[in-house]
Design goal:
alpha+beta; Pnp Oxidase, Chain A; binds flavin-adenine dinucleotide
Amino acid sequence: MTQSGTPLGDTKRTTLHRVPHKEVKDRAALYAILDTALVGHVGFVQDEQPFVIPVAIARDGDSLLLHGSKASRLFKILSGGVSCAVSVTILDALVLARSAFESSMNYRSAMILGRPEELDGDAKERAFEMLTDHLLPGRRESLRPTNAQEVKQTTILALPLDEASVKISSKFPADDEEDLAWPVWAGNIPIEHRYGVPIPDPRMTVDHPLPVYLKEWSEGRT
Ligand SMILES: Cc1cc2nc3c(=O)[nH]c(=O)nc-3n(C[C@H](O)[C@H](O)[C@H](O)COP(=O)(O)OP(=O)(O)OC[C@H]3O[C@@H](n4cnc5c(N)ncnc54)[C@H](O)[C@@H]3O)c2cc1C
């Protein structure tokens, strides 16, 4: 295992071989991806069969937090100390080249390898808060507090960000010179990630004004 704070992609398993110039070793780039994304895909093997399961994520320092029901197959297996991989991708643009072959995507992508540890006590309580603040920013103070039964029913795992890699693609089409005169539009189509207009729950019994932080959400996260 590498130490927290070491450069990314420093192990044999996380060194990029294909298009290595897209590798980013800066740990801040990993944090930026994890702090932007809401969902990661967790890969693990059960009885020789690989599975990949989407879950909500949040970062706390040098750990990635995952949470789920105690009854979940995924969380039972992961809390048993098995190795997993978590993949997190933010899609930034379609890159439209003059040929299908050269067309591609711009993205920010991270992969973390390791064995998650189950959190308990104060660490679990803090992780609940970190997850809520990441997934529902500005909302924690006004929500009904999580009760003891809900805490008991939930497994929270922390995956150390010790062994990780980041690959970022940010470019215009890489057409060959001889294709540049081909009579077709070429360029990038940015992909925006933003929240839409809030729709009130029909079961809301009191007429609540829309909080300021919810108006801010619609400004979007990238
Ligand atoms: C955006 C998003 C965020 C989520 N966040 C969380 C979270 O934070 N915590 C959490 O516990 N769960 C979350 N889920 C649900 C999660 O993907 C799993 O369904 C859940 O964790 C149960 O996993 P399991 O291995 O116990 O499921 P099981 O029911 O045991 O899985 C059995 C089989 O069902 C299928 N399956 C299970 N989940 C999915 C799926 N999501 N899509 C398609 N097929 C599936 C697969 O074939 C799987 O092998 C999220 C799902 C999505 C799409």
